[in-house]
Design a protein that fits this description.
GO terms for molecular function: DNA binding; DNA-binding transcription factor activity. By secondary structure, the protein is α+β, with helices and mostly antiparallel strands. The protein folds into two domains: 63 residues, Winged helix-like DNA-binding domain superfamily/Winged helix DNA-binding domain (Arc Repressor Mutant, subunit A); 160 residues, Chorismate lyase-like (Chorismate lyase, 3-Layer(aba) Sandwich), CATH 3.40.1410.10. The chain is built from eight helices and ten strands. The strands form three sheets. It has a six-stranded antiparallel beta sheet. Strands 1-2 form a two-stranded antiparallel ribbon. Helix 1 crosses helix 3. The radius of gyration is 20 Å and the shape is elongated. It starts with 13 loop residues before the first helix and ends in a 6-residue tail after the last strand. The relative contact order is 0.12.
């Protein structure tokens, strides 16, 4: 099957095949950001009914790869390669990247039990001498560094994952749930722009002083107890964080 063509015999739903083709074209910059993806054009291109076309465009829009202009059609989103929607569950970025076809890789270092800095103790509401599991994780997508995170987790002393286990799952909270039944319910985020330090410039392959995106997250269990804290630094031009507010 040629690239960009559907395979009705593959067993993969047609809307999913169409979505994957269009997503790849948007992510790789092949799709023209000035040219709308109209239903008529896509019907002619793929030779299917309207239902799979509409479902593919709906999911691409929800994931941030395309956006709709009233009366004009659906357009590709340029810039960021990673569009994180609001409904990605806490601690599941690695899984989301994998499901999005971005072939993530994870490198974990510096695993240790430590007393966290004062501002983290205050955020989590813990005593001065409580020791948390701490490590640093570097996530790459398509072989390029995307996120470097410093993670602190409140966990039983018996929770002592290896670097290989943390890299294999992409989430310490997944291991924590599997071993101790501790699950996450929600997460609170704070985000801002910062300038790359010399260390960050070396990590991400950017110039010192380049813009980076910082997202600090506090995780809570299903019982409402603070479960951990993470500070994640992102390559700003490659990452878009989508969120929803309601009243």
């Amino acid at each position: 099957m040629a690239s960009g063509e559907l395979d009705p015999s593959s067993g993969v739903p047609l809307y999913r095949q169409i979505k994957d083709i269009l997503r790849t074209e948007v992510a790789e910059g092949v799709a023209d950001p000035q040219k709308p993806m109209t239903e008529a054009q896509l019907l002619d291109r793929f030779g299917v009914s309207r239902a799979p076309i509409r479902q593919a465009l709906k999911e691409l829009a929800s994931e941030g790869y395309v956006y709709r202009k009233q009366g004009r059609g659906t357009f590709p989103v340029t810039g960021a390669r990673v569009h994180r929607p609001a409904d990605v569950r806490p601690g599941a970025l690695y899984q989301y990247l994998s499901e999005s076809g971005l072939h993530p890789a994870s490198k974990v270092s510096g695993i240790e039990r430590v007393e966290p800095p004062a501002h983290i103790r205050h955020r989590l509401g813990i005593t001065a001498h409580e020791r948390l599991l701490h490590f640093t994780r570097l996530i790459s997508a398509e072989d390029e560094p995307l996120v470097e995170a410093s993670v602190y987790i409140r966990a039983p002393e018996g929770f002592s994952p290896t670097a290989g286990e943390l890299e294999g799952t992409g989430s310490a909270f997944e291991l924590l749930e599997r071993e101790f039944g501790i699950t996450l319910d929600r997460a609170e985020h704070e985000a801002w722009a910062t300038a790359a330090t010399a260390e960050h410039a070396a990590t991400f392959g950017v110039l010192e002083g380049s813009p980076l995106l910082v997202i600090e997250t506090t995780f809570y269990t299903t019982g409402g107890l603070p479960a951990g804290w993470r500070s994640a630094v992102h390559r700003a031009e490659d990452f878009k964080y989508r969120f929803v507010t309601s009243r």
